[in-house]
Backbone:
C-alpha cells in the first residue's frame, strides 16, 4: 500500500512537471485558454484529489468571500487571491525540479493537528480560524506531494496568500486600540494649536458642538492590511532580486499607511466642523477613505523613486 501511494505521488509530480513545460509562454506575458489545458488534464487524471481539496476549500472560501470580502476590511481579498495564484503559476516552472514527495509521517502528524482545529472552527463558524486552518491543510497536502524545498522556494506566494483571510478579532482590537488613541491625540493637538475649538479623551473627539468617535476603520487597520498586501506584491515583483532594498521598502509601508489615515482623520474632523456631522458620515467619509488609500499607494511608489540611489548602492554592494 505505501508503495502504491508513493507511485501515485511520483506520477502526480511528473504531471505537474509536464504542466509547467508551458511556462515559457506564460512568463512572457501571453496568457490564453491554451495555458489552462495542462491544468484541466491534471484535474481529470487525479480527480479524487481535486474533489477532496474542493470539499475543504470551497465552503471555507465561500464563507470568507461572503463574510469578509464584502466589507471594507477585506475588499482586497479577491485581488490578493488572483495575484497569488498567478505568482504560484509563475514560480512553479522555476522550482518544479525540486519536487520530491514529502515525509508521510510528518504529513500525518500535521494532519492530526490541523484537521481537528479546522473541523472545530468550521462547526462553531469562526471564519478567521477556519480560513487559516484550511490554508494549513492545503500546505500540508502540498508538502506531502512535492516536499519542503519547492514550498521554501515559493515562500512569498505562500505568505502573500494569507492576506485573503480576515485577521482574528483579538488581533484587530490589540492593534487598533493604540492606533486609534495615537491618531486621535495627534489630530487633537495639531488642530488645537491651529486655534480650533477641539478637545477629546482617548478615541473620543469633541469639536464645536459635534462629538466624533474614531473607529477601527479610521484608525488605519483596513488600509494598513490592504496597503501591505499591495505594497508587498509591488516590492516582490519589482525588487525581488535585491532583497535588502526590498526589506527596507516593506518597512516604509506602515508609516505611509498611518500618515495617510492621520490625514484622513484630520479631513473628517474639519468636514464635521464646517459642514456638519451628516456630511462627514456620508459620501465624503467613503470618498476620503478611497482618496487616502490611493495616496498611500502613490506614497509607496514615491518612496521607491526617491530611494533609487540607495537601491543602486545596495545592488553594487551585492555585486561586489
Residues:
Amino acid at each position: 500500500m505505501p508503495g502504491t501511494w508513493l507511485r501515485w505521488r511520483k506520477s502526480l509530480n511528473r504531471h505537474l512537471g509536464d504542466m509547467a513545460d508551458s511556462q515559457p509562454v506564460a512568463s512572457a506575458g501571453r496568457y490564453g485558454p491554451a495555458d489552462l489545458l495542462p491544468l484541466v488534464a491534471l484535474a481529470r487524471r487525479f480527480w479524487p484529489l481535486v474533489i477532496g481539496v474542493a470539499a475543504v476549500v470551497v465552503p471555507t472560501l465561500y464563507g470568507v468571500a461572503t463574510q469578509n470580502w464584502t466589507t471594507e476590511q477585506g475588499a482586497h481579498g479577491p485581488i490578493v487571491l488572483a495575484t497569488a495564484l498567478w505568482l504560484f503559476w509563475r514560480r512553479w516552472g522555476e522550482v518544479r525540479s525540486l519536487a520530491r514527495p514529502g515525509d508521510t509521517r510528518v504529513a500525518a502528524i500535521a494532519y492530526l493537528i490541523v484537521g481537528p482545529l479546522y473541523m472545530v472552527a468550521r462547526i462553531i463558524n469562526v471564519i478567521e480560524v477556519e480560513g487559516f486552518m484550511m490554508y494549513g491543510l492545503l500546505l500540508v497536502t502540498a508538502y506531502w506531494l512535492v516536499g519542503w524545498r519547492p514550498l521554501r522556494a515559493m515562500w512569498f506566494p505562500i505568505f502573500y496568500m494569507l492576506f485573503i483571510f480576515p485577521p482574528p478579532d483579538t488581533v484587530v482590537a490589540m492593534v487598533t486600540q493604540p492606533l486609534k488613541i495615537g491618531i486621535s491625540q495627534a489630530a487633537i493637538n495639531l488642530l488645537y494649536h491651529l486655534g480650533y475649538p477641539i478637545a477629546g479623551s482617548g478615541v473620543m473627539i469633541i469639536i464645536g458642538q459635534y462629538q466624533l468617535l474614531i473607529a477601527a476603520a479610521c484608525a488605519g487597520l483596513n488600509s494598513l492590511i490592504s496597503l501591505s498586501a499591495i505594497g508587498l506584491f509591488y516590492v516582490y515583483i519589482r525588487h525581488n532580486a535585491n532583497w535588502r532594498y526590498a526589506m527596507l521598502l516593506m518597512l516604509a509601508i506602515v508609516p505611509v499607511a498611518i500618515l495617510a489615515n492621520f490625514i484622513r482623520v484630520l479631513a473628517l474632523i474639519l468636514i464635521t466642523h464646517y459642514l456638519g456631522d451628516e456630511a462627514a458620515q456620508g459620501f465624503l467619509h467613503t470618498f476620503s477613505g478611497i482618496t487616502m488609500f490611493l495616496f498611500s499607494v502613490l506614497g509607496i511608489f514615491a518612496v521607491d523613486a526617491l530611494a533609487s540611489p540607495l537601491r543602486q548602492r545596495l545592488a553594487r554592494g551585492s555585486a561586489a
Q: What stands out?
A: The chain is about 75% helix and 5% strand. Residues 169-193 form the longest helix (25 residues). The chain has two domains: 2-163, 170-319. The first strand starts at residue 198 and ends at 201.
